[in-house]
Design a protein that fits this description.
Structural class: mainly alpha
Keywords: ATP synthesis, CF(0), Hydrogen ion transport, Ion transport, Membrane, Mitochondrion, Transmembrane, Transmembrane helix, Transport
Protein name: ATP synthase complex subunit 8
Order of helices and strands: H
Membrane topology: Single-pass membrane protein
GO cellular component, one term: proton-transporting ATP synthase complex
Pfam families: ATP-synt_8
Length: about 55
């Protein structure tokens, strides 16, 4: 069965992963985010109990 022959497909997978890891990923990681995260204290939600009209 030819689809089980790893010779051409393993080389293609290896080259594609090396391309992604060495060329594309550093270019993507070098971008600065537009909205950087900041240390804002989390807002505490208002947890007032709801008064049900039928109780």
């Amino acid at each position: 069965m030819p689809q089980l022959n790893p010779n051409p497909w393993f080389f293609i997978m290896l080259i594609s992963w090396l391309t992604f890891s060495l060329l594309i990923q550093p270019k993507l990681l070098s971008f600065v985010t537009v909205n950087p995260p900041y240390s804002k204290p989390p807002a505490i939600p208002n947890t007032t109990p709801w008064t049900w009209p039928w109780t």
